[in-house]
Structure formats: C-alpha cells, structure tokens
Amino acid sequence: MRLRSSTSRATTDRYSDVETALIDANRLGREELDRIEAYRARTGASFTEAVVDLGVVAPEQVQRTLATRAEAGTLIDPDATGVSRAVVAAYDPDNALTVKLRALRSSLFAIEDLERGDLRVIVVAAVGTDDAPGVAANLATLVAQLGQPGLLVDANFAAPTHHSLFAVDPAEGVTSLLSGAEDRAATVVETPVPNLSLIAAGPAINALPETVERVSLVEQIRAIRLGHRFAIVDAGHQPPEMVAAIARGADGLLLVVERTQTPFAALDELLPRLEAADVPVLGSILIR
Fold this sequence. Notes:
CATH class of the largest domain: Alpha Beta
Distance between the termini: 26 Å
Shape: elongated
Number of helices: 15
Radius of gyration: 22 Å
Strand order of the largest sheet: 3-4-2-5-1-6-7
CATH topology of the largest domain: Rossmann fold
Helix content: 40-55%
Structural class: alpha/beta
Largest sheet: 7 strands, mixed
Number of domains: 2
CATH superfamily of the largest domain: P-loop containing nucleotide triphosphate hydrolases
Number of strands: 7
C-alpha cells in the first residue's frame, strides 16, 4: 500500500507494512514524518509509540490498524507483481469489497477446519451478472491470507479471466484435468499471492459440456493431493446445467447476484439443478 498524499514512494519504502498503513490511513506528510523521526531519534520510541506520543494518530486508530494487518496476512504490491488491481484483497485490507468478503470468509473457513487437512471446495457462480471472477479471486486471496495453501480454479469457460488477474500464462488447466491429464499436479501454478495457486481454464477441448457432465471436476481437484486446504472454483455466469455439473461434489456454492440484473426466473432454473446434484447453497453475495 502506498501513500495517497504527496509523500514520495522512496520515503515510504523504509517503513514497515504497518507503519506505511498508518501513514496512508492518516495521510501523514513530509513535515509530520520528520517530526516523528526526530522524536524517535531523541527517545528511542518505535514508530507506533511516536505517533501516539506526538498526538499524530489516536491510540484506537493504531490498534485498528494493527488488528486489520494481523487479519489481512501478507499483502503484496500489485505494481511489482503484475497482479491486477481488481484483486483488491491482495493489497488493500480496507477496501469495501475486502471487508465484505473477509466477513464471508469467517463464516465459510474456520482456521481449525483448514488446519485439519481436508480440502474444502467452494464454488462461486453468478446469475445475471459477470462479477463471479472478482468475487472468486478476492475470496481465494483472503482465505490464502489465513496462512493455509489453497487453489483458485477457473472453470468459467465462457470468460476465463484468472490467468490475467494473476499475471500467469499456464499451458494446462481445468480442461486438461477433465481430459484425463496424466500429471494433475502440472495443471497447478503458483500465483504472486502467498499460499495461493491457480488452475487456469486450460486449452479448448471438443464436447466441453458433455465432458463436464461426465467427469467430476471436484473429484479431479481432490485427487491432485498437493496439500491444499481449500479450493475456490469460479463457475462464472454459465448455463445452469454447466454450473450444476461443475459444482457436483463440492462442499457448497455461493451465488453472486445483482440487485437490478438478476432475473428470478434464472434462479428458479438453477436452484433445482443444484438440489438434484446435492450441492448446498451456502448463501448469496449481492452486487449493487
């Protein structure tokens, strides 16, 4: 995270993530930073002690920043890594989408469950909106920030996106798994986000809908066995029969809906198919 004020990047590079967050949140300028550094030189105080002692930042603001940073885990610099700024959870813990999805993460992924070692597979599917990739990418990033290794799986065949979001270009992917790839692990590539790997959509194959119906993608993901603790599968905004087939065997599905765009008729078509495939709907995410 970088300053939104006039303080230079070179200046902020010498501060830790927490210190930079305090500088950024409170828009501290060069004059204030000079006062802080002079006080630290005289007293030996830490940065957080100095800003409180000088009255630059309120103690409760420091505590909120420390708590947010502990919850956020390791953040990255999107400019340095090539990760899209659409993946706001990777670098901005205070963004409204990050905060919203962090609350959802808490209800879906208890750290005790992740540490147990069983792979938890959650599918994200959109109805009447194209926002599933953003939700899936940010949610997967947030779960990875808990410190447990996991997968983001791009089964959004109509509009594959995640290889671009995470600046990777793998040759293999989901379609390779569905086609019986001999080396399943070869479909997995690391992303610049710590603890998060990606299975991209993969090359085009013939008879894709029939293949998705015949071969369980979730079973293929579970069979990779690289020690992942979670998998977020983006099923995108695709026909209901495709979504239900992709989600077959998953621990649950999240619906992404848009207040003015999602038709009830589309939900009425998808939900019975999910029920028939024994896929529980865990909740919905409303995009305004």
